[in-house]
Design a protein that fits this description.
- The protein has helices at about 1-20, 35-50, 60-70, 80-90, 125-130, 145-155, 160, 170-180, 190-195, 230-235, 240-245, and strands spanning about 25-30, 55-60, 75, 100-105, 105-110, 135-140, 165-170, 185-190, 200-205, 215-220, 250.
- By secondary structure, it is an alpha/beta fold.
- Helix 2 (about 35-50) packs antiparallel against helix 11 and helix 3 (about 60-70) packs parallel to helix 4 (about 80-90).
- The chain is elongated, with a radius of gyration of 22 Å.
- It starts with a helix and ends with a strand.
């Protein structure tokens, strides 16, 4: 009788352990600009599968460094190819799992009631539009949105004139917030960020040929032990996810 109880108890422990593992949440590390879209995708994933995803949002460079340091991520979605390659080159992305998922645009935004009127073109007078204020941008050396913005301003010949007026932030959503709060008259963010914030308006869109193509890759972390990681990556490519991404203003790349 005692032996039977021990075996029964051991079986329950195994069952509970298996059940806990099966319902383990997917840990998704994703670029800050994806917050609205991926929150909605996570809700859809849960409705379809009864499984949950948790999201950590930050600048792609910061997330890549955290993953490199052993942060418990299952999926990485970057705002550029550079940081996905950075992890891939170190063997930290499961071989063959990375895909080019989304595209975007960068835009110049101002407060909703701003009277600023600009046409974004070669040599446009951005300095006068900024006036005594600042130009909000994500870090121009490491954060994808900031790098795209700097490249565009350089290509259009106006970076040198505004470089000293740039207020750099840790991620693109922080740059958006500076404009939202009126702490900067203008900011460079993604088109999807502008769409997500009713307190700002788009002053102009940067020409696609003024900066590298904006591509969001996604991939499974090589060290992930979560059996649902690959399935969640597939869900990101599903028709349901596509509809969510497009509603948020992203371009879904042909897969």
């Amino acid at each position: 009788m005692i032996l039977r109880r021990i075996i029964h108890a051991a079986a329950l422990i195994v069952l509970m352990s298996t059940s806990s593992f099966a319902t383990e949440k997917i840990n998704v590390f994703a670029a800050a600009s994806l917050k609205n879209a991926l929150d909605a995708v996570g809700t859809s994933w849960k409705a379809d599968t009864a499984k949950e995803a948790t999201f950590t949002y930050a600048a792609s460079n910061a997330l890549a460094k955290q993953i490199e340091s052993g942060a418990p991520a299952d999926i990485f979605v970057s705002a550029d190819l550079t940081w996905m390659k950075y992890l891939g080159d170190k063997g930290l992305i499961a071989k063959g799992s990375d895909i080019q998922l989304l595209g975007n645009q960068i835009v110049l935004v101002a407060a909703k009631d701003s009277k600023i009127d600009l046409k974004i073109e070669s040599g446009f007078n951005l300095m006068d539009a900024i006036g005594s204020g600042k130009l909000a941008m994500a870090n121009v050396d490491s954060v994808p949105a900031g790098k795209y913005g700097k490249a565009a301003l350089q290509k259009l010949g106006v970076w040198a004139s505004v470089e000293g007026k740039v207020a750099q932030t840790e991620n693109v959503r922080a740059a958006l917030k500076l404009v939202d709060l009126g702490e900067a008259p203008l900011g460079i963010v993604y088109a999807t960020d502008a769409k997500a914030d009713a307190a700002v308006k788009v002053v102009g869109t940067f020409p696609a040929d003024s900066h590298p193509s904006i591509i969001y890759p996604a991939g499974v972390i090589a060290a992930s032990k979560n059996p649902d990681a690959a399935e969640f990556l597939k869900f990101l490519q599903s028709d349901k996810a596509k509809a969510i991404f497009e509603a948020q203003g992203f371009v879904v790349l042909k897969l």
